[in-house]
Amino acid sequence: MLKIGIIGCGAIGREHINRLTRLIPDAEVVGCTDYYLETAKKTAVQYGIRTVYKTGEDLIADSEVEAVMITSSDPSHATYVLEAVRLGKQVFCEKPLAQTTADCEKIIAEEVRHNKPLVQVGFMRRYDPGYMEMKRIIDSGSLGAPLMIHACHRNVFQPEGFQTEMGITNVAIHELDICRWLLRDEYKNAQVLKVRQSSRSTKGYDNPQIVLLETENGSRIDIELQVADGYGYDIQCQVVCEKGTINLPDPNSVIKRADATCSVQLLTDWADRFTTAYDIELQDWVNCAGEGRPTGPTSWDGYVACAAADALNRSRGTGKFLAVEMIEKPALYS
């Protein structure tokens, strides 16, 4: 039984607590905390969690907590991850791993010091059955080499305080990971473009944006990013190979025919779209963390996504591709 402490009891934190307490038999949530302590107390009552900690640092330091799950706000991730790794604890950190490459490098250095990967980053799409099948086909070589990826990430709306840069670091960060994973290739250059703005762009951030990437092997990736599309949560991906194409399937949905129309219900929420992926992801993390062995997306994967995001945000307004700058990959992650 893996004893887990949760830092962050917001929307995704509660989603994960629900999975860990109701779906995953080898996990026990022994404690939780939140910036708003009252939220943590209410969550503890709801899920029968016996200890509420005043701070994330208190939770991490408790010897009863064997593994730490970080689902707090993005700016807090790096500090909590680094502290948990220093103590040699297994960590699950929701994306992004950190907001700067410098913080990612500190985490990597600490794992290297332990000579052991301890962190899994919450890039759940690697566990989605559709993406997994796409990768299986690509890796089989049956369609030849992958040449291009066309993708889009469309959200219905964003909360107050959302900023243009967050479209890359918080939203398109999933595409930055999954495209690299599908291609088994590293990023070389990156550029983000501002295009004609939607009338729904009324809160001061760019919407839409176009993300362009070039890999070391010369593959090209374009990603349409809309953070306020007004119609649904819509994730699309097409890989163009030498002998054919591979398209990410839409979620299963009943087709309704009525009133001379044929329609399919669209989802509006990330939690509904990737339910299965989250289930598989957390089960895999609990299994592997309990055995103390490497698991899914590592700190290095989180670092690469952060480095690509940095290049994209630096490129905004320049009209140029900028190099994705990274340190040498430690042998630990090979």
TrEMBL record:
Residue span(s) of domain Gfo/Idh/MocA-like oxidoreductase C-terminal: 135-320
Entry-linked InterPro entries: Gfo-Idh-MocA_inositol_DH, Gfo/Idh/MocA-like_OxRdtase_C, Gfo/Idh/MocA-like_OxRdtase_N, NAD(P)-bd_dom_sf
Superkingdom, taxonomy of origin: Bacteria
Database matches in Pfam families: GFO_IDH_MocA, GFO_IDH_MocA_C
Recorded GO MF terms: nucleotide binding
Domain Gfo/Idh/MocA-like oxidoreductase N-terminal: 2-123
Family membership: Belongs to the Gfo/Idh/MocA family.
Protein name: Myo-inositol 2-dehydrogenase
Biological source species: Muricomes intestini
